[in-house]
Amino acid sequence: MSGITIYEFDVLIAEASGDAYPEGSHTIPDKVYEWLERQCLRAADESGAQWLRLSQRRGHRVVQVTSFVGVIRAPDGYQIEVLPKVGKAIGGGAVEARQLLIEMLSCLQGFRHVQTDSAKLSATHMPLLEVFIAEFLRTVGHIVKRGLRSSYSCKQDNLFALRGKLMMASHLRQNLYRADRFFTEHDEFSIDRPENRLLHTALRRVLMLSAAQTHQQLARELDFVFADIPVSVQPRIDFQLVRLDRGMGYYSDALAWAKLILEEQSPITGSGGHNAPSLLFPMEAVFEAFVAKHLAKQLVRPLVLKTQARSHHLVRHQEQNWFCLKPDFLIQDANGDLLVLDTKWKLLDGLKANGTSKYGLAQGDFYQLQAYGQSYLNGTGDVVLIYPKTAAFDRPLSVFEFPKLERLQLWVLPFCLKSRQLLVPDCAPFAAALEGKREKVTANLESSVSR
Fold it and tell me: Which residues contact residue 170 at a Cβ distance below 8 angstroms, ignoring those fewer than 6 apart?
């Protein structure tokens, strides 16, 4: 099974485009390119989050991936592995970028079943899709070792012996001239339950997806264990019937992988208007979840981190609140909000302050943080933009001041993906206008986050 590994925002071009390919582009088979073009047009028609976009480079039509990472799988099996763009900036190549992505994915709410250590080890010698398959097979093997669960289910059947409750109306209708039959309703203790059907179906799917011989062999061995269990005819309905009741907890990880494999969508792309095939994850959401997990560990009591606040709106109209203000994070203590923070998955250049580049910052983000500061901090305090740390952006930028809001400041800080820490200035006056306990707490924050 052929494929290619690229990074976010890389450009793909058809092999038949000629010899003079645009610099930095990646060639893919013509049929795969045509399929990607159709996906671009479909995403545009559906007005969803576009994981691909059409463009032109030196007179050639090209397709550019956006900020979605993971695996794109064409109908003919061709795979395009998309890794985080920060992998280029921090070095280490595809292996380190893949391992970093796996660790970041483990912070997602719907993806915390990944066992980071084993997955990162697998990532050193296999592409991302095979890493996912390896994790799925590992969890199914764990279930097989503990034993497949059976359950009682109510069944109706025309039997040769009376069993359970005789269904008189059906019995007379079907057995009026058959004295040797009994139409009964009875409970049957069976291994045929939705959880097992879904795992069996996912194993069959893995046999089609995986190109690794070791995975093929293990999948066949596990599939043999499920031989007496039918595959799921309607997986979506079976997922609704899943009941992880008492003693069924060890099924949860395998079922999470089965859902990912059978529905071919990530926990993020399947909701919130993001539509994408295969296994794709929007890096904005992945980065936000990663920062949330590790920033919360850096705070000292009584500071707490609140995610996705929704307590304020931009305007009020006809006694209704419009345009909810939803910062990524709030740092709070018992007295209220101290800091407002927002994550941005974008690579900055700390040396390009002049001209139109302005470090690569977006004016819209500043408007957004100004609105957050006025609503959540009453225009007094500090708001923070968090970007991934790279060699070009390895230290906080000088403070930004709002001329008309003298008591509100904006900070642009790097978050180190390797050390999992937010970097702040040595003497950053976070919440300097706050008094007493708040000022002391902010100093504790500064000392606990900075190294």
Answer: 156, 183
Please state which of the ranges 67-81, 246-260, 366-380, 426-440 shows the lowest mean pLDDT.
426-440
Strands 182-190, 304-307: pairing kind? unpaired
pLDDT (tens digit, 9 = 90+) per residue, 92-105?
688 888 888 988 98
The verdict on 239 and 118 lying in the same domain is yes
For residues 307 and 206, membership in a common domain is answered with no
**What is the token pair recorded at 119?**
């997955």
Number of compact structural domains in the chain: 2
Q: Are residues 36 and 278 in contact, defined by beta-carbon separation less than 8 angstroms?
A: no
Nearest to 417 by CA among 81, 107, 65: 107
Return d(Cα 128, Cα 72) in angstroms, integer: 11
pLDDT confidence of residue 91: 66
Which tokens sit at 273? Answer: 């208007």
Chain centroid offset of residue 78 CA: 22
pLDDT band at 113; cut points 50, 70, 90: low
Q: Is 257 helix (H, G, I), strand (E, B) or coil?
A: helix
Q: Judging by beta carbons within 10 Å of its beta carbon (0-12, 13-18, 19+), is residue 273 exposed, middle or buried?
A: exposed
CA angle 396, 402, 408 (to 5 degrees): 75
Domain of residue 323: give its range: 299-449
What pLDDT score was predicted for residue 414?
Answer: 94
Q: Which two tokens stand for residue 27?
A: 């060639």
